[in-house]
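Q: How would the structure tokens look for this protein?
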Amino acid sequence: MTMKAQGMKQPRKLAVWTLAAAISAAAIVPGYASAATSAVTTTQASAEAMDAAVREAIQQLAAQGVMQGYENGTVRPNQPVTRAEAAKLLVLALGLKPVDGATASLGSEHSGKWYASYVNTAIANGLIDVKDGKFNPNQPVTENELAVMAAKALQRDTLSLTSWLSSVADGKANATRGETARLLVKAEQSVRAADARIVSVRALDGIALEVTMNQPMTLDDETIEKSAETFKFDGGVTIVNQPRLKTGSVNQYIVPVTKLEEGKSYTLTYKGSQTVSFTGSGELIRFNDTRQVANDTFEVEALLSDGVVDYGYVISAYAGGRGADAIVLEEGNKHNGQPLQIISSLRNRTAVLTPEGGAPITVGYVGYTQSTDGKQEPKFRLPAGTTLQPGVKYIVSADWFTVKQPSFVAQTIAPLTIASAQLTDAKTLTVTLSQDPGDEMFAFRSVTLEGSDGSKLAAQYRVQTRKGATGIFDVQNGGELKDGVTYTVKPAGEWAVTTSDVTLAAK
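A: Here is the predicted structure in token form.
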């Protein structure tokens, strides 16, 4: 299943217009007039041609002293923005401050220039990369470059910023003043705040909430450790994983929680002071099929074509790594006009696997497998030491999902084959299989390392590090590979085999 990102740009020509304001000494760049403190005036013709949202954005930024008109009062919304101008606009609009101890900065040839302090602030905040202090201040900024700079300033993904730009894009490669103004106003609303408050809460389904804030939370407040303290529910509900901002959204979070009851009233207390009520939903996640993938592991599958999407494809934190599969949802969590059910984090979720004629078995979700390789196929694993019995029919169920085709007949599946291993450093090695498994079959698997000196170590797969057939494994329990010792690598358990000795030598 492949998912395409949204954000097609629509050409739009904007009219030249004027700011009715007194000109003061302060200027954004040489040749620019000072901030406007009065209303924008336009001719009737330009008013009809000018995009209202862009006009309002420029007026707002002018009143703030962020963006100014030219000396003759014109705004020229189609004028390209230079790299120096972009740096200053972002620094002013987002209130960025110099960073103590910053090492990178402009070269001496830029000393005393109008833009130097702003660009140095942008560099210190990670918005701009410079090599040997070299910087071309008059080079136009492309729309993508502007989106990248703004995303870094907001600690967000580039796709979100690109989607915000697309609403006023004119189809040109370079970012214009009109586009930049619209983006900056949106960006100002998206600055993270420690005192962010909840605006509303609603149940997305039986295991997730959509929480709208007045501003995005700080990254620290979004962590699972902090959110477990600040999001407190009644009715036996707890938060399951950290809140995640939706891609393209300023302030809407997906918050995974334990099972909700249909129609039940709940109360969320945020940071011990704000209390918000909401009604629970009993809606089950809709999976389409289930299948065995290993002798102790099976998966369930959901399809985008059936109106179900994993949150990994729609959250800001993951957008950068999902490529063309990342989605910016429309209003009402729609995609191409179709409402989507969102599968939130499955951390600590369980399901029930019942063998025909046998007792139910509780199985646990295998972390980091719910959306990989453009697919939505979360995996569940039997308790350690138990396996699926070939020829037996198994039925999959849970109180939080439903499966259209809920059963499969177990087969004997050949284990993966470890072909080679290579030392990375004293605490890390890579393990390569004989062929690409095409999915996260390494997840939570381990290998043993038997040293020629009689020592024994264990190493576990580092989640989400697989590249094709190769994954990174970390030595456990503080152990280290010793110089001059040769280690034989073997799978821990029956998840894989070696057809011949796989060894590595610590140097």
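The longest helix spans residues 177-189.

Residues 1-11, 21-50 have pLDDT under 50 and may be disordered.

Upvote if useful.
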